[in-house]
Task: structure prediction
Amino acid sequence: MPRKVSLTVIILLLLPLCGCWDSRDLDKLNFPLAASYDLHSPGSADPSDPPTPPGRKLMDVTTMTPNLAPKSSAPVDIQTLSGINATDVRQKRALIDPDTYVTGLLKTIIIGEEMASLGINPYMDALLRGTTISGTMYFAVAAGRGEDILKTPIKNDTNIGTYLLALFDGIHQRTFIPVIRLGEFYRSQDTGKNPVAPILERKGDRVIISGVAVFKKDQMVKKLNLEEGQMLVLLRGIAGESYQPFMRNEAGKKHWGSVLVSNSRKVKYYQDQQGHNFLITIKLTGNLDEHSHQGPVTEKHLKEIEKTVEQQVKNQCEKFIKKMQEEIKVDCIDISKYALTKNRRALEKEIDNPEFIQYANIKVMVKVHLDKTGEAR
Amino acid sequence: MNSTDTITSKQLIYIIIGAQIGMGVFSLPRLAGMEAHQNAWLAVFLGGLLPFLILFIIERLGRRMPESGFVAMNQLLFGRWLGSVMVFLFVVYIIFFEATVVRMFTEVTSAFLLPRTPLPVIAFIAMLAVVYAINKGARVVARLNEILFWIILPLLVIIMIPLAGADYTNLLPVGEAGLKSIARGALSCSTAYAGIEVLLVFYFLVRQKGEIIKAGILGLGYTMLVYVLVTVICQVVWGNNFIQTLNWPVFTVFKTIRFPVLERPEIFMLAVWMGVGIRPTMNMGFAAAYSLSEVLHVKRDKYFHLVVIAIALPVYILALLPPNLIIAFKWAEYAGYTFLLAGLFYPLLMLVVAVIRGKEAQSA
Result:
């Protein structure tokens, strides 16, 4: 290749390095850490309070952005704007905010209770379609409005965005609660599956996880309390680690204690004349961490504690399954997929009908294995 | 043959891999799952058998006249004029195929990396890099393929991370989609292996002809492994129904990966993205430019760059013709079908003619 042509090609290749259409000044960008989607409430924080178009409920999008301006008095910038969808809100943001909105660092999305109950996919499309949106952002439902969660003046962390991130990060190693990311929320809407998500609630100046939301595809159908949420985690097979308290009667005396266990689940499925049968085996392995019984723990004693925990968890699980079949009527424990593995083509059309899970024969078996007793015997 | 246009059999492995694994892999799980549903991986595996057949056909063909060249072989088999027309048609096929690759590359770059940069600018920069590499000859193209192979390899490890939380029930039951659906899926998937036909040109540039079949099997085996792996990962992470709603399911898998320190590991993928995107264009572009320069008797040292530009220009223009992504996907589909013509029927026809006319190496 002649030298002149080579040189021309190299110069042309270097051209885009001196600046391109996509270069933007960092200080002109707005990086929200957390956002919430709510159904619009008239007179909300949006100063424009737009009129509602017929046939569509408006949404309120609240964003929380750390304030990077050097002499700013407020550590965070929280804005609520209304629109027919998320991108409509983004274009309205341009009217009140000089910075460019960048969604790449969004870490948590909170859906207001009312919107979750209505079905959220029509409002979430921008999150799926947006190429800069991360599938790893946490997904949660608010008890009430998500806007209120983001506007909580949090005191024990830098801001609500970092607090929520710290709360959710590694929570599976601290307690049995289902935490879900955006990507999982989408894939849990596949045939035979349904998502679950933690519920965030504002208590004064604090935000806590107060329960679990059960979805039928994209629509929240039930709110569970924390105890039910724990059983849901065990039955659903979300791997984690948590303390499990127990109570034993021994020689007429009540003894209290707790085990620190990690969980796993196996599901066996078969179909016979009785219908669809599921056998769920929950395995809990871990240590005895606390026991009010003061004597040394013998092997026999340990086995008895295992049996006690097994029975206790089994009873709670069976109670939850009864509720799921009679009241919720949605497979929130993620077992229908095992039926699909045997006969996908035939079951695909009926598996999401409430009758499928309602009339399924579901049995639970719990196996507990404790291999350590800590420092004390 | 110019001294810069000979390659080793090892380099041929990288060239085959580079010519095949390009833009198609990013939408392959969707294409495979469309017909074969949860058995998409099976369709990808079966579809991968076709390029092995093509490899054996080309190897048989090349063995008959090893000291010839692609253009000389065509002229020998079909006559001077018809042979030249066949080479021209092959070049036209490559131009069309390359155009779809460049367009897809441009679309993805625009969607994920440079949303505000106009498509013509992205395509232009990509084509400049391709033109520069092709001008340097087969050896440089081969070395670039080798370097890019090792740079891109870590992506294969990164994409396996979501397997830890994946749902393997999405793959079951195996074979339930039915023979007909899987076969249809396999046929669609076989087009994703386009690129092997560059062997028609590169065969004659390899020094150790005896090792071509081994190199071909290794190259194709690797491509098949990557395709099956990527399809399985997408299926277990997303499930077939959700995959059907995504343009590039493989990219969407990258968006679900998270490291404790590095929040957005897809940046790794985007960093080596250029390499993935332009490899097939570079390899096929070289095959086209080399063939055209031979058929036109262009002096390799003086005017080869003009031939390369003559190839690059229509590629660039064609790449910008589809008015939107949906039509660009349609073009890619048509390009896949033309692969069956240029990649399977063309070498097969040449082999049949060679057998009938009994042309041997000596006569070449």
About this structure: The mean pLDDT of chain A is 90. The interface with chain B takes residues 1-2, 5-6, 9-10, 12-13, 16, 20-22, 104-105, 128, 131, 133-136, 181, 183, 186-187, 189-191, 193, 337-338, 340-345 of chain A (CB under 8 Å). The domain at 237-377 of chain A is CATH 3.30.300.210 (GMP Synthetase; Chain A, domain 3). Chain A has two domains: 21-224, 237-377.
